[in-house]
Amino acid sequence: MQQNSETLSPVSAPEPHRFPCAQCGASLAYTPGAELLRCGHCGHETRITAITTPILEQDFQQKLHELSTAAPANDQIAIHCDSCGASYSFDGATHAGSCPFCGAPVVAKTAQHRQLQVQALLPFRIAHDQARTAFRQWLGKLWFAPGGLQEYARNDANLVGMYVPYWTYDADTATLYQGERGDDYQEQESYRTVENGQEVEKIRTVTKTRWTPVSGSVSRFFDDVLVLASRSLPRAVTERLEPWDLAHLLPYQEEYLSGFRSEMYQVQLDQGFERARQIMADVIRRDIERDIGGDHQRIRAADTRYGDIRFKHILLPIWISAFRFRDKSYRFVINGRSGEVQGERPYSPWKIAFAVLLAAALLGGGFTLWQHYAKGQDSGPTPKIRLYQGAAPQWRSVPPLAATGFCQARSAACGV
Known about the structure:
Layout: E1 5-8, E2 28-30, E3 36-39, E4 45-48, E5 58-59, H1 60-69, E6 77-80, E7 87-90, E8 94-98, E9 105-107, E10 120-121, H2 128-140, H3 149-156, E11 160-195, E12 198-228, H4 235-238, E13 250-251, E14 261-263, H5 269-292, E15 296-324, E16 329-335, E17 341-343, H6 349-378, E18 384-389, E19 392-397, H7 400-409
Parallel strand pairs: 1-4, 10-15, 11-14
Antiparallel strand pairs: 2-3, 3-4, 5-15, 6-7, 8-9, 8-14, 10-13, 11-12, 11-15, 15-16, 16-17, 18-19
């Protein structure tokens, strides 16, 4: 069927926002990797008009003060579906999804439900089929996976595209520290040991460390420290999806959410900054160690001041799914921009046990070969005996025991 294209105005619509097809009236959904909405029924395309609103960080301290005096937000989002007439509601975290009765996509505005609004997002670049392919490749690379896992997980997993809320924090930091610098040096020392049944004295070189008190300061500007603002996903898994191409953030537009789910933040602004401080502290510690120098470092105290703290509220695209295997659920996530897969997975105890036994056998075999080689070196060269056959002597190598037996039987012929 022929596909038509038109331009969609970025002007905001009343709550909630729906995206009907201008040609057949069905619902439009965002197409990953393209700046357009596509009708799944007739193929009609509607291009998204980019907006040029600058994405600016907000003042952290000022916003905290404003939040402390603001009225509490209403968590529940009530929706009336124009497509089928049903009424339903999203849970306290979701603001974009589809009607549970007819599947029509809808994006609710969040001004009444969250005090801080989304400023920017990264649109999906990886489509559903690409995400499923990445998941299958990830399954194929798993070590010690139970038999049948790949086929079972492929059939059981149901991928859902979701825009997940994040905070980004900027901060100018200055840290004063006290600690110690350790410099290695070598000394000769004598020690006594037993060789061939006799106690002997020997000399060896040992490495020691000389510690010197130090103090100083380091400074660093942090830009876009990323913190998950959702409690629906495990932080340890989502952090492994990094890095994100935040340089390509776009101003928030509801059109990119059509056909996908989206969450509102559940981690508050000040709570997110506590996590950001932990991330910054790891980097600052490495800065202090480099500043101390030497071979070893000890940090006794560090006092960090955070200045000019600013933040953004953004959405990042993640494909989410889970599969059940042997009565246990395993979640996995896929970076909607790069295709990176991370998640929970089962292990096969039998494969692990076999690998341990195989490693032990290889180590044992190697040790036996080394012993045999060492014994061969200690036994010396194979002795040779002289055999006279007529007038011309010949040399022939035989094992030591054979040579001994021959000499006992033919002592007159032995020349050893």
